[in-house]
Fold each of these.
Amino acid sequence: MSRAPDDDRFMRLALTEAHKGLGRTHPNPAVGAVIVKAGRVIATGYHARAGTAHAEANALMLAGTRAKGATIYSTLEPCDHFGRTPPCTQAILEAGIARVVYGSADPNPLVDGKGITRMRRAGLRVEGGVLEAECDALNEPFFKVMRTGLPFVTVKSAMTLDGKIATRTGASKWITSEASRERAHHLRNRVDAIVVGAGTVVADDPQLTTRIPAGRDPMRVVIDPSLRTKPTAKVFASGGAPVVVITSKPTDSYRARAFTKRGVRVLTVTERRGELALEEALRALAKEGILHVLVEGGATTISAFLRAKLVDELMLFMAPTVFGHEGLTWSGVLPVATPAEGLRTTVVSVECVDRDVLIRARLGAV
């Protein structure tokens, strides 16, 4: 690949554009584009949401006739198929672009190198892999769904220094600082669904909304095997984003009908060894375009996801407080008898959030 001296710089601008759509584009990836001519940026664009123009098309529209002979930078390989919008390769060819530089290869079988072949055959210079790691990280949830049929799963928990999410009496508000709670709302703002268990709904009666300016509420999902939560709980009563209850009860049962009457969708999955088939539930959500799932607990739900080996990432907010051994541990009950059997994680980052510490870790080796 023939790299130009400023390729990294312009791709970073494209990444900045892509972040503007993060959390808004599912089931599509977040993409940014920059058009450069004679070393000067003449247009930028990003994909805002599914069904609207892609990043490349938005940038080309702004560039107009100035795009002829220019270079377009895209964080993701341009598409070459008709979906809800025309192919980006068609717009690129019609605009007279001379060079295409992209960051990530697209694992979507509808893309998968087809556009690159088409553009090269038309005489364009096409180069990929620029800032590939950063571009891949931007759309990791999309890539995982494309490759496995499962959404990317982040577990978020707020705890004490000794890993407790509640005292021995069950009291939990508030353990972490207001700054940490605001950070958690920003995390909600960029995922596609929030998952909690029935115990959290019964104990805390949360709304599970994103309480930040211009925030977007993701889908709210309640794991409730026996449908013991009340249809009048805040999470079901508040408007906005869709609400789904995942259970093993049939959708035509009396309890299930009480939820559907309130506009709550009931998703029935199989039960295995007394536990819901969480992988089955996640695959069903992925088929609806859910790319990134945030599991907020409590301990029973978190431990179920950990035992099922469905967790990709941990976001753990730790406050400088100690509750002692009688407090409730965030990870719940795990089948660990020896140190060698413990779940292995790789710490990605550690940062201070006001008086708290945020640890971001990945399950397994990175």
Note: The mean pLDDT is 92.
Amino acid sequence: MKDLTTVENYTYSGEKVFEKAQDFLPILGTDYVEMYVGNAKQAAHYYKTAFGFQSVAYCGLETGDREKTSYVLQQDKIRLVLTTPFNPDSDISHHIRMHGDGVKFISLWVDDARKAFEETTRRGARPYLEPTAVKDADGEIVKSGIHTYGDTIHLFIERKNYKGIFLPGFVAWKSDYNPTPTGLRYIDHMVGNVNLGDMNKVAKFYEDVMGFANLITFDDKDISTQFTALMSKVMTNGNGRIKFPINEPAAGLKKSQIEEFLDFYKGPGCQHIAVATDNIVFTVSEMRKRGIEFLHVPGEYYDTVTDRVGIIEEDMKVLKSLGIMVDRDEEGYLLQIFTKPVEDRPTLFFEIIQRKGAKSFGKGNFKALFESIEAEQERRGTL
């Protein structure tokens, strides 16, 4: 086993804390995120049109898959896979009936999928997929997998010996309809919602089983409004490329956004995917033109934001017109905005984030953000 490596841990008090993240599971990055959806063809059209994803690969009846259809879309380093089953009694169909459209696989790119499986299962992970080699004319990939929170799975993908379009069994997806990208670059973090009392258990899973470290902890005093509250622990891997905030509900006067998610998703799951951009004004402007709905930020938020964050490069009037929020930490500042749920169940949504040095998660915006979410909950009758 390799030696421990130090990972810097930032808190919002300004003090730098150092944690130990174990190096037994080196992760190169996020390989892909696979969602089980009711109609992959239509979902693919939506993500191309509204988010600017590009057609990459396809598998289905035409490629010999009699169980499901999958469309692969990509924008820079972000790769989405949208999968719909043919068999109404399959595990995929059960997942969709239970959860609606949602994230099933958070797939991690590793150099050795066999070793990743051995290391994590030896430390207590429940196996999902034994190491499996899959080949075609373009080479070989090795994949394995473990269970995490709820029905969410981590797959380990080893592709160093593969030169194909995506994975064996997929063919290139050619399309005459190719909307331009919106400037999305990579996945910044992915947030999981878990039941009351399970946040520490899941955080410990990531620490003990996957060698992650606790980067930041928020309690119900950090993340609360007059009516609702939640708690969160942000877990990160050794190189900082993978960050998983884990949320659980906290006591409040009304039903929190976490409880609403758990009610409609029917259990723990991925609440939102934060995607990074180098120009949030361009990205959000494009997405608004294409029909993406964002949470409304009260105008009074901008009355005091300059006092809190100081001088920034962007025009605050433009940020206000688009509803983009700003926060600052010791390293710099960030800009962020959140979409409304991207399906009819109030479950999965996206965060658009641009970091100007900041390594934090927008603590200064929590109150305004959660008040906006509560306003949506009230309209839905679920607050």
Note: The two ends are 49 Å apart (CA to CA).
Amino acid sequence: MAKIQKQYACQACGAVSPRWAGQCADCGAWNSLVEDSVAKPTPFQAKHSLQAGGRALQLVGLDSDIALPPRLPTGLAELDRALGGGFVEGSATLIGGDPGIGKSTLLLQAAARLALSGHSVAYVSGEEAADQVRLRARRLGLGTAPVMLAAATSTRDILTTLGMGAPPRLLVIDSIQTMHSDLIEGAPGTVSQVRACAQELIRFAKERGTAVVLVGHVTKDGSIAGPRVLEHMVDTVLSFEGERSHQYRILRAIKNRFGGTEEIGVFAMAEGGLAEVVNPSALFLTQRDESVSGTTVFPALEGTRPVLVEIQALVVRLASGATPRRAVVGWDSGRLAMILAVLEARCGLSFSTSEVYLNIAGGYRVQDPAADLAVAAALISALSERPVPVGAVAFGEIALSGEVRPVAHAGLRLKEAVKLGFEAALVPAGAAGEKSPLTLAGFKSLNGFVDHMLGRG
């Protein structure tokens, strides 16, 4: 406990004296000194106090005229779209995805394009030897790109090497789970090692102005492995999604401090690497000339980009006593259960004795709540064997009361449908007033929508 020290303070002027006196030496007042007890700070407190001894910070206002950090376009338009215009100098980007999805291929293509355009790029691989990376570059036709390549896992060695000369404009670390810091005990990939190595690499990015890209492993449920704080430390988090059985890959921005989130970039895996897909809507739609029951086209919205996808449903009637099955690919299974419950409770349709299968064509994963009406249209069409017209799209959110609620950016969705040659749209009643060359049919409730689908007037 700190030692109590006595002192005497003048009640007239506030002067402090270590001894009592009848008259204040400063203001001359008589009998004004009163004893005041204060705790004397110990040497430990004086050493560990954070209220003094630091560096004064320069505080600026929100309206200060400060130049924003420049962008570093990669030359891959889809990657730049997901990033918001390219890498930012001094930023840290984390990209995760399933094994074999194409993370290393995408970053090697971006690094090679930046190097060929005159920027200094360093690529450090902790999972492959340098010769393996060179072989991949030759297979992709990028063997002549002046990328500085190294195979290392020691964070100290990497930062020491990069600190000897001018820092590179882009640094790729593949992957952060293989990096090791000799300041922390533990094997590479542990929580403490991942956090410590990422912190040192991010500090290097902020101090030297290098755009650092960290490749992260994912767990079986698709989340990035390691401590959750890793996603908080970086500036941008990208998720590389797609089914390995399909050639299409989707790069989704989950977090972006320098741009909007939920932007996507679409790629197709080809022999020469990942190719950009300029019009993804045409890829996720099947080519069919006649109507097929159980299929509906839905204009999904990813950030500012509308993407038309095909929703497929199959309803199989079972014999009495059998337990029906519900299978979903590319959509939320809980959302499907809710739509089925609303159709049964509010509209009188029975799915309790039927198996229900729902699929999003092309390996696409839909997270937009506006897909409710399109899913309901596919289910009603599959149950009644009445196909939805080929030239029609559908979107809208369904409430538990059976109300068809309006959704955001209806105009963008309709414009994308017009661009691909669609002629009609099944929309909420609030979106029926949009100016569009499409024939719009608006619905306030799911009952009216079911009557329209079944031809009841």
Note: Residues 139 and 232 are 36 Å apart (CA to CA).
